[in-house]
């Protein structure tokens, strides 16, 4: 006959005083337990292959990352594309998006861009054509372009940072916005800074050995 | 490990095994003429000698090419069985297991096994047939978007688009499965591509140039981590599955014993450190030992190697090692601070990083005599005390019904140390963890992350094939007969066994020497345990009022069947079942009300493990 599991019951055991927060970070009981979220831009250089966008979007959706926008387009190198992801996450969340993206086999390089990154997005919107002069004035004010002016509707393009585009769309509301199409943000690092490290390496390579580059 | 190379078992390192291409005379082989032949040639070049699969329409060209190949194909009863067998093959041999299936239902039947391998980072490659390219997207007969379906559960997957490149794609998939953080890869093979003409011989499989897993950790990070360990008073090593995957058990042993640091393992790391060693605290987590969970809860430095901090290990993250600074070594940067924040991340291969930290600690020790192993003596004494306070035990009256823990211990006693244990998922799996003493890596084969019921029997088939393959390789390398008849036993539950028992037909057909112990409690015991504990004993759909007679069923399949009810039958039955040279099933009638303890209720604190239902 054996005796079964022995030992002090849960409440009779010593208890540690520390704890961690929901992100598994060891915390001082006096300090804030949960980190704030912040909005940031990640730029990923990826192989320009079929299915790469599906892999990236599938990754972010199944891991429930809070994605604000995701844009993609080819770069100077036809074999690569740049994916720009705007996310709003806590610091650990941002690092997770970055490292999870980086481990995809099709991803060459990923980097978080700083606050000073040059970012732009574009909106095409269609308003009622009752007051063409006023519409034109708003378009001028936001440096936009009139793409089409018909008897009933006027279609305008505005490009700018997110805030400018938001403001412009607000301004057009007075004419009645029938419909609009808006892209997500696309961005590059500011000035001489490289957006991703892989591009710097390639650029250097092309400068030193232009003849061997068959792109 | 070196980039692009599947990991080798430590035993093979002294004398590298020649590649398959060297063994057979490559010159004498006829050149490839079709995509399918190129696929098979790529497998041969990768050193594959056995595969697990099921025939079907879209994969037929590949099977046709296998007709002339010198590869052992184990025809499974169901594709899920093929995936689990390939998975287990990878765990036991260290080299990616290969499974094949046709398009549509064949491919989708693989998905559970692929997902299982993905959760446990097991090296595996799946090859699936696909409808001809021009019919893709037309909802053709037996069409499924296989790369779409499997993208979330594969490390990488490929849609083969030309007969000329198909062999290289398979080679890359194979190399990738075994490199860095291991995992399953898949190549979808449209029928027109496999039947298409090509004369291109596949190259040696290489990982893509964008895949560069870290080898050694950053030196300054290593020094910092070593400093933290040297200043610790209550350090614990938490070994994860990465220790086994990275063939780092020897380094772990050397490190832990050199500095006298207690070792806790995760479930996938069972066998990474000998459980009969004084420093071994065994498995932590939901059904881990009380002493492992006490050590985790009260340690001040946790040196975690190759673990992803699964919730079954951590319990509620708020209370996981709450006082500890965490040093986390992993080959996958995405695991760092994913679930538990790493104060000191070390990116690299498990064995290399352990050695690096060991060397840095040796320097620390030279500089500061206080940082010797003696320093942790008090802490070791504390851990030993917890072992005495919370011993693993169970109540076992002398009469029936049998206690499952007793059966596990009896089989352990009757078998050699290197016996491979596979399990299904449920209570029996936990008893097999808790009451078997594992002393060697790659002897514990189970479904950890996904928790796939039905894993045990097909895994035993894969494990048997792998054990034989490893022995035969060793024999070829050493040039002499190896007296190594490693046993494979499977512990299964009746509910788990019912899910894949058709694979018994395969075990009989291939005459595989495996012994299955069905711990039969006539129901899904783990669910029943939770219902009793958390759902007021409302046993909805967890009791099976009628069960087949597994002993007779085994005989119907052509296997040997045994039934075991009383303690007086145990020893003799086990002996007879193990002695049978072929598959045998022991239907062990166990106490249907036996529960698994200790237990940390889901999301609870590890230090608050309960020892009995009344503590819930």
Give the distance, in angstroms, between the N- and C-terminal Cα atoms of chain B. 45 Å
CATH architecture of the domain at 37-113 in chain A: 2-Layer Sandwich
Rg value of chain B: 24 Å
Helix content of chain A: 25-40%
Q: Indicate the percent of residues in helices of chain B.
A: 25-40%
Mean of residue pLDDT of chain A? 91
CATH superfamily of the domain at 37-113 in chain A, please?
A: ACT domain
CATH C-level name of the domain at 37-113 in chain A: Alpha Beta
Binned strand content of chain A: 25-35%
Unreliable spans of chain A are none
Class per helix and strand makeup of chain B: alpha/beta
Overall number of structural domains of chain B: 3
Give the neighbour order of strands across the main sheet of chain B: 2-1-3-4-6-5
| DSSP E strands of chain A, number | 11
CATH architecture assignment of the largest domain in chain B: 3-Layer(aba) Sandwich
DSSP, total strands of chain B: 18
Could you name the CATH topology of the largest domain in chain B? Rossmann fold
Q: What class, by secondary structure content of chain A?
A: alpha+beta
The largest sheet of chain A, given as strand count, sense and whether it forms a barrel, is: 5 strands, antiparallel
Largest sheet of chain B: 6 strands, parallel
């Amino acid at each position: 006959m054996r005796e079964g599991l022995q030992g002090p019951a849960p409440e009779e055991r010593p208890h540690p005083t520390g704890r961690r927060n929901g992100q598994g970070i060891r915390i001082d009981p006096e300090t804030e337990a949960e980190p704030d979220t912040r909005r940031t831009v990640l730029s990923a250089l990826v192989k320009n292959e079929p299915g790469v966008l599906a892999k990236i979007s599938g990754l972010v959706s199944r891991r429930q990352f809070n994605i604000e926008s995701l844009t993609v387009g080819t770069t100077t190198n036809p074999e690569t594309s740049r994916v720009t992801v705007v996310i709003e996450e806590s610091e650990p969340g941002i690092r997770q998006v970055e490292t999870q993206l980086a481990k995809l086999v099709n991803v060459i390089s990923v980097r978080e861009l700083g606050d000073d990154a040059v970012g732009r997005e574009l909106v095409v919107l269609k308003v009622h054509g009752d007051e063409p002069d006023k519409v034109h004035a708003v378009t001028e004010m936001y440096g936009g372009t009139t793409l089409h002016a018909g008897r009933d509707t006027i279609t305008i393009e505005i490009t700018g940072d997110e805030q400018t585009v938001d403001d412009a769309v607000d301004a057009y509301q007075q004419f009645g916005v029938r419909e609009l199409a808006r892209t997500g943000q696309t961005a590059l690092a500011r000035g001489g800074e490289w957006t991703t490290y892989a591009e710097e390496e390639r650029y250097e390579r092309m400068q030193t050995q232009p003849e061997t580059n068959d792109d | 490990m070196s980039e692009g190379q599947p990991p080798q078992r430590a035993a093979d390192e002294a004398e590298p095994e020649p590649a398959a291409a060297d063994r057979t005379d490559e010159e004498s082989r006829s050149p490839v003429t079709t995509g399918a032949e190129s696929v098979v040639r790529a497998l041969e070049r990768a050193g594959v000698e056995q595969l697990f699969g099921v025939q079907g329409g879209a994969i037929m060209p590949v099977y046709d090419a296998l007709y002339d190949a010198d590869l052992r194909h184990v025809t499974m009863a169901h594709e899920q069985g093929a995936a689990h067998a390939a998975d287990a093959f990878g765990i036991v041999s260290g080299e990616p297991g290969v499974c094949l299936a046709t398009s549509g239902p064949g491919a989708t039947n693989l998905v559970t096994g692929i997902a299982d391998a993905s959760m446990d980072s097991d090296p595996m490659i799946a090859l699936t047939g696909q409808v001809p390219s021009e019919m893709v997207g037309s909802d053709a007969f037996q069409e499924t978007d296989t790369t779409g379906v499997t993208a979330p559960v594969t490390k990488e997957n490929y849609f083969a688009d030309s007969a000329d490149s198909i062999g290289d794609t398979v080679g890359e998939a194979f190399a990738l499965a075994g490199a860095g953080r291991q995992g399953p890869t898949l190549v979808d093979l449209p029928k027109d591509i496999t039947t298409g003409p090509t004369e291109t011989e596949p190259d040696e499989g290489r990982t893509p140039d964008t895949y560069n897993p870290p080898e050694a950790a950053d030196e300054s990070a290593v020094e910092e981590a070593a400093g933290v360990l040297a200043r610790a008073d209550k350090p614990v090593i938490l070994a994860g599955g990465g220790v086994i995957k990275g063939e780092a058990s020897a380094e772990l042993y050397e490190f832990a014993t050199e500095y006298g640091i207690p070792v806790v393992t995760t479930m996938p790391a069972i066998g990474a450190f000998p459980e009969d060693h004084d420093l071994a605290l065994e498995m932590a987590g939901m059904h881990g030992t009380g002493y492992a969970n006490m050590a985790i809860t009260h340690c001040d430095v946790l040196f975690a190697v190759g673990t992803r901090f699964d919730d079954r290990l951590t319990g509620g993250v708020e209370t996981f090692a709450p006082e500890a600074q965490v040093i986390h070594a992993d080959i996958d940067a995405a695991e760092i601070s994913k679930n538990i924040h790493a104060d000191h991340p070390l990116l690299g291969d498990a064995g290399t990083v352990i050695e690096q930290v060991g060397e840095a600690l040796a320097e620390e020790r030279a500089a500061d005599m206080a940082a010797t192993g003696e320093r942790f003596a008090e802490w070791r004494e504390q851990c030993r005390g917890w072992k005495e306070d919370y011993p693993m035990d169970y109540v076992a009256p002398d009469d029936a019904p049998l206690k499952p823990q007793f059966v596990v211990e009896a089989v352990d006693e009757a078998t050699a140390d290197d016996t491979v244990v596979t399990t299904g998922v449920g209570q029996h799996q936990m008893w097999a963890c808790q009451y078997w003493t594992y002393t060697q890596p790659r002897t514990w084969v189970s479904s950890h992350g996904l928790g796939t019921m039905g894993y045990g029997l097909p895994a035993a088939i894969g494990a048997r094939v792998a054990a034989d393959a490893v022995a035969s390789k060793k024999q070829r390398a050493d040039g002499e007969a190896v007296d190594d008849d490693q046993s494979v036993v499977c512990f299964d539950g009746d509910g788990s066994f019912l899910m894949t028992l058709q694979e018994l037909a395969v075990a009989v057909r291939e005459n595989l020497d495996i012994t299955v112990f069905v711990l039969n409690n006539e129901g899904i015991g783990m669910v029943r345990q939770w219902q009793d504990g958390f759902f007021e004993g409302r046993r909805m759909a967890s009791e099976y009022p009628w069960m087949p007679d597994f002993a007779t069923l085994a005989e119907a399949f052509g296997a040997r069947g045994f039934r075991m009810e009383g303690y007086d039958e145990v020893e003799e039955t086990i002996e007879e079942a193990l002695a049978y040279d072929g598959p045998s099933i022991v239907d062990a009638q166990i106490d249907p009300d036996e529960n698994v303890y200790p237990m940390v209720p889901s999301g609870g604190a590890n230090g608050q493990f309960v020892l009995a239902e009344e503590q819930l």
